TrEMBL record:
It is found in: Membrane. The chain crosses the membrane at residues 172-189, 201-226, 292-313, 388-414. It comes from the Eukaryota. It is a multi-pass membrane protein. Its main location: membrane. One of its GO terms (cellular component) is membrane. Residues 1-417 form the ABC transporter family G domain. Keywords: Membrane, Transmembrane, Transmembrane helix, Transport. This is ABC transporter family G domain-containing protein.
Length: 417
């Protein structure tokens, strides 16, 4: 029935590993003969367990069987196996004893550096196997027909869309919170011709970043800052589902793109909801379309960052970072970069600085005539330039695109072990 047979002693040490046809011949050479009408594998297992003792004429103890197999194949015998067998090196033979002594000398001469290097090599090989398993396509030996990436993308798109429809109440609450945020910030923000409404836009950047960062915290859209607990719970379930489906062979790219595609609905709609109230109570000089364009780019940027935080960090840590990061970066971006300094240099690479600069520029372009001198002075103090409007939008879009790439890399790499 089987071609090969492997017998293991206690501790997982090999006693025999070879052809089934030669197993009785091997043990007969050791003086262990199988009685009539007895299944040979069962008899050998009983001997290894110590239930049946070999004949005294064989002179072999069941503890010596791993040692006999090593000597039969010419393997070097470790000293611990030799001691456990209770056999003297002189009674085994010259060549075997020499192999034992050489193995003992090698083990004694092995240094701490050698052990450390071996551990490093082992860990590197494990990481290599892990990366190859995640990124390289293994050969399917089951001959099953797996759906392509595009077909899986269409399936996940429908599934995620149905999930969002089931969350209609959460969506409505999110829109209501955005309306209230627009009313509050539009009322509290003071519009000043000297600063071109920069303070009001600073509140907008903080509010939108905080809201939208946690909004897409769990690789899903439409979760607000006030419903963060529900977002974390639903995302934990999503993670578990993804780990199981990924192990069964689904496309991670199709899974990620489907969620990202559905989330674009909120990226487009929620800035409209926020600005509808903010414009009514604040009435800045800039046009609705310009502010909407900036907010869409800002939301696209922070959602990509939220993806990476939600995937890589634990729910509590990701929640903390998603709240602190936009606030700190907005305060850094509010520093006067014209004066230089460390914070001013860092602020030039913050998405909050790009968003605030784009907001202020859209408002400043509406000032003309006698306000030109005031406009130039205020923009120079902040380190802003009128021609940087389009580059700021491009920087935010690129940040969102790169952060999505990082999030997908984390999704594929940092799975549950």
């Amino acid at each position: 029935m089987f071609d090969d047979l492997i017998l293991l002693a206690k501790g997982g040490i090999t006693v025999y590993h070879g052809s089934v046809k030669k197993v009785e011949e091997y043990f007969a050479g050791l003086g262990i003969n199988v009685p009539e009408r007895v299944n040979p594998p069962d008899y050998f297992i009983d001997i290894l367990e110590g239930i049946v003792k070999p004949a005294t004429s064989s002179g072999v103890n069941y503890k010596e069987l791993p040692l006999r197999w090593m000597l039969h194949n010419g393997y070097p015998v470790p000293p611990d196996i030799l001691d456990a067998s209770g056999v003297a090196a002189s009674s085994i033979g010259g060549n075997s004893a020499q192999g034992i002594n050489s193995g003992a000398a090698e083990s004694d001469g092995q240094s701490f550096a050698g052990d450390l290097w071996t551990d490093v090599k082992t860990n590197v090989e494990l990481k290599k196997d892990h990366i190859q398993h995640n990124f390289l396509k293994s050969k399917d030996l089951s001959n099953r027909r797996t759906a392509g990436v595009f077909q899986q993308y269409r399936y996940f798109l429908g599934r995620v869309g149905k999930q969002r429809l089931r969350e209609a109440r959460i969506q409505a609450v999110d829109f209501l919170i955005l309306l209230i945020a627009g009313i509050c910030l539009g009322t509290l923000a003071k519009v000043s011709d000297e600063t071109f409404g920069a303070s009001g836009y600073m509140y907008t950047v903080i509010a939108v970043c905080k809201f939208e960062t946690l909004l897409f915290f769990a690789l899903s859209c439409s979760l607000s800052l006030l419903s963060k607990i529900a977002a974390l719970r639903s995302f934990s379930l999503d993670k578990l589902h993804y780990w199981r489906e990924s192990a069964s062979g689904i496309s991670s790219l199709a899974y990620f793109l489907s969620k990202n595609t559905i989330d674009h609905f909120s990226t487009i709609v929620k800035p409209v909801v926020y600005l509808s109230m903010f414009y009514f109570f604040n009435n800045p000089r800039s046009s609705f379309w310009d502010n909407y364009l900036v907010l869409v780019c800002l939301v696209y940027c922070v959602t990509g960052i939220a993806y990476a935080l939600a995937i890589y960090l634990e729910p509590g840590q990701a929640q903390l970072w998603s709240v602190l990061l936009p606030v700190v970066l907005t305060l850094v971006a509010n520093q006067d970069t014209a004066e230089g300094g460390f914070l001013g240099t860092i602020g030039n690479f913050c998405y909050t600085k790009w968003a605030m600069e784009a907001f202020v520029i859209t408002n400043a372009e509406r000032y003309s005539g006698v306000w030109l001198i005031q406009r130039c002075g205020s923009l120079q103090k902040k380190g802003f330039q009128v021609r940087h409007f389009i580059p700021c939008l491009v920087y935010m879009l690129l940040t969102g695109l790169v952060s999505r790439g990082v999030a997908f890399f984390c999704l594929v790499t940092f799975k549950k072990k």
